[in-house]
Amino acid sequence: MDNSMGVKRRNDDNETEHASDNSVISSEEQANGAKIRKTTKSHNREVSTILVKNLPKSFNQGKIKKIFKDCGNILHIETAEPLDKVFRYARIEFEAHENALMALTKTNKKYGDNEIEVIVLQNMTVWITNFPPSFTVNDIKNLFLENGVVPISVRLPSLRFNNNRRFAYVDITDPQDVNHIIEALNDKMVSNYKLVVRESNLLERQKRTDSAVIEKREIFVKMANSSALDEQILRGIFSKYGTIEAIKLSKDRENFPDNNGNNFGFAFITYSNSDEAKKALELHRSILKDSQIFVTISDKKAYLERQEIKRIINSKHRSNDDMFISIFPLADKITKSQISKLINEKTNIPEHSIMKIYLVADYNGCIVKFNNSRYSAKCIMALDNSTYNNKNIRCSNINGLKKSQDHKNDKKVTLGTTYRDSSNNLKAINKPPAISIDKNQEEISSDTHSTKKMNNDDFRKMLGL
């Protein structure tokens, strides 16, 4: 497992900075493992969510829903108590902005001895990243509570398509606390990770840090003679193929030998478009300062990982098959670090004995490879039919995961979640739908700790990208 410490770079773990939080998962959904259907068209959470203050302490979600059900479809309700625990807050997310406006008419109404206040939840969302990978929703909430700020919702991103995403949107109960919590937590060291905390602001949205890779306009250059890799030299050679936006060189080339034990240098060069990057491939296997250079289009690691997991799952004759185990069902928000922690706590198997962890989202589980088959057997005995996050989990071999009831091509949407209608509008499910909704194609990701040949992402980490 990844034991690297120190201040971690932000952009490796976040697809985008201050992106819309419409694609993230709420704290309650994380706890109960609710499955939410995601599509490209986002529900506009920012204008359809209200905060209710001064509800009676005895009010649960059912009672709160009765108060606001005539305002429109409710997608989600979360509650919290102030530090003195004298009343209850509620965060209610509606299907549409008009529903939220209707809910504002409930303000100043009395329930028992409590006169409630209803406001639109705005300017009360904090974006936090670079917390330890093992952090859970409760860990994030505790960071806020320790500094006198009440978090009412923590929304984490789904790891279904990218297992490196590590950030959260936290809704608090008072806009005046935003600056306070930023001052308290930003740059704070937590388990050797420096937190990054900002006010969520859609106007400050930044482009995805891996956009050049996705758009195939970034090339990877490698050569055995590391001393020959110089930015000016590279720019002079590669600029004839197009406009170069950026060149990133290895910062410590001498420490990274190739498979033959030779030191090598490498660089990432970003062009303004993919056609220019393709033209630059002409330099593949050309000679620079008496050394051959290798030029390829940078690959997105997730694609390579999916191919690897497909080979593992579909292979009829796996080598070292007894070293693999599977754990299922797991929500697609569970991280590799949390799985490693689960195994260690339940089995006392040392972390270094885990060779790889694959997050297999389309099977609602994970695959773990150990360095010894006896650990696999021990893990199955300890974890099978155990409880994790208040859910029963199974632990088996890979075939057990393939045959699991949680993996079906046709999945029905469960109560309490949302779905898209025929017009691609987000709807709340208050009763079972008459039809089942096909499951989106999902992606698979992995974590590797073997001594295999390094890929583009490994080099990227060395560059601090």
TrEMBL record:
PROSITE patterns: RRM. GO terms for biological process: spliceosomal complex assembly; spliceosomal tri-snRNP complex assembly. Pfam families: RRM_1, RRM_occluded. Residues 48-123, 124-202, 217-300 form the RRM domain. Residues 21-30 have a biased composition (Polar residues). Keywords: Repeat, RNA-binding. SMART domains: RRM (SM00360). Residues 1-42, 443-465 are annotated as: Disordered. One of its GO terms (cellular component) is spliceosomal complex. Residues 9-20, 454-465 have a biased composition (Basic and acidic residues). Gene3D superfamilies: 3.30.70.330. One of its GO terms (molecular function) is U6 snRNA binding. InterPro entries: Nucleotide-bd_a/b_plait_sf (IPR012677), RBD_domain_sf (IPR035979), RRM_dom (IPR000504), RRM_occluded (IPR031766). It comes from the Eukaryota. This is RRM domain-containing protein. It comes from Tetrapisispora phaffii (strain ATCC 24235 / CBS 4417 / NBRC 1672 / NRRL Y-8282 / UCD 70-5). The lineage of its organism: Eukaryota, Fungi, Dikarya, Ascomycota, Saccharomycotina.
